[in-house]
Design a protein that fits this description.
This protein is an alpha+beta fold. It has six helices and 16 strands. The protein folds into two domains: 126 residues, no CATH class; 136 residues, Nucleoside Triphosphate Pyrophosphohydrolase (Alpha-Beta Complex), CATH 3.90.79.10.
């Protein structure tokens, strides 16, 4: 179980990784102010007013009346004011670890205030903000990122799919392939993958022509859908029957004449932009690989084809 607990003396936190109940797995957790504990942290300056606590002693963190003692794991303070458990001093058995963890959780909950922060496969993080005022911890991810892939061939046919699992009101709609971007996946890679997975068509990325920003979508999260245009590199369709009911190359006139696209303002606007981009009447954002000195890593910057980018725009922007 993972926790973050800022101290009342600074915006510090207590962090712990995956909650594997095993004597060989590293687990760390936070201690609420006012606790008394055996085998305390080697260094707890954020809680003890700068005092270093020696290993193996009992120590009170504050003058608050104490209800009892709990066993906690040996830990140290990291460079960010966080407390990390020493993995070499874990209990010898999973039962001992489980017992210590459960009693600690019970004690912390009695002190009140732990709330869920976020969860990932393998762990959940709870937080408890000690200072007065609203919590200052950054929120977890607030948005889901998706891609929509507009693929149009030289015959003016659009690659469209019919979802296999969708509400009845949209069951007969032919739409462009869409899906969520995977973790650590680039936008253009996600669009290419979704087209391949749903239709079997290989394609190459051209540009991002628009994005839709909406709120309270799936899992009550905000959602950004990036609309990408792609060039088909193959033509034979092979659908993923677990997701897609059908896929086909549809004449663009037939695609835009569907009642849904005629009546839905968002769909009509996206389709018009994509068709304009295909006919070179609209310029989207291309992906450029750029190195940043801030984090010493390569990332993709999506930009339009401006005169400045092609060296045709003077640096004197006032002219």
């Amino acid at each position: 179980m993972a926790f973050v607990v800022p101290s009342s003396y600074s915006k510090s936190y207590l962090s712990l990784p995956h909650p594997r109940i095993s004597s060989t797995k590293q687990v760390s957790f936070g201690i609420a102010a006012g606790s008394v504990f055996r085998q305390p942290c080697l260094k707890l300056s954020i809680f003890s007013g700068g005092k270093t606590l020696s290993k193996g002693t009992n120590a009170a963190i504050s003058d608050t009346p104490l209800l009892g003692t709990i066993d906690v794991l040996d830990a140290f303070e990291d460079d960010y004011g966080g407390i990390v458990v020493n993995s070499t001093s874990l209990p010898n058995t999973s039962n001992a670890f489980s017992s210590s963890l459960q009693s600690s959780l019970c004690y912390w909950n009695k002190q009140a205030g732990f709330v869920y922060h976020h969860a990932e496969p393998g762990y959940v993080m709870l937080t408890f903000w000690l200072p007065d005022g609203p919590p200052g911890l950054p929120s977890t991810s607030l948005h889901q990122i998706g891609v929509g892939a507009f693929v149009m061939n030289d015959k003016n046919e659009v690659l469209v799919v019919k979802e296999g699992k969708c509400p009845s009101h949209c069951s007969d709609i032919w739409k462009i392939p869409t899906g969520f971007v995977d973790k650590f996946e680039d936008l253009f890679s996600g669009a290419i993958r979704e087209v391949r997975e749903e239709t079997g068509i290989e394609s190459c990325f051209l540009d991002v022509v628009a994005f839709r920003h909406a709120h309270q979508v799936l899992f009550d999260k905000s959602d950004i859908l990036f609309i990408c245009t792609l060039k088909p590199l193959s033509s034979d369709i092979s659908i993923d029957e677990s997701e897609i009911e059908a896929a086909r190359w549809m004449p663009v006139e037939e695609f835009v004449s569907q009642p849904f696209h005629q009546e839905d303002e968002m769909s009509r606007a996206i389709t018009d932009i994509c068709i304009s981009a295909h006919h070179k009447c609209y310029a989207g954002l291309a992906a450029h690989q750029v190195m940043s000195m801030l984090d010493n890593r390569v990332a993709y910057l999506y930009t339009g084809d401006t005169r400045e980018a092609t060296g045709m725009c003077p640096r004197d922007y006032k002219s």
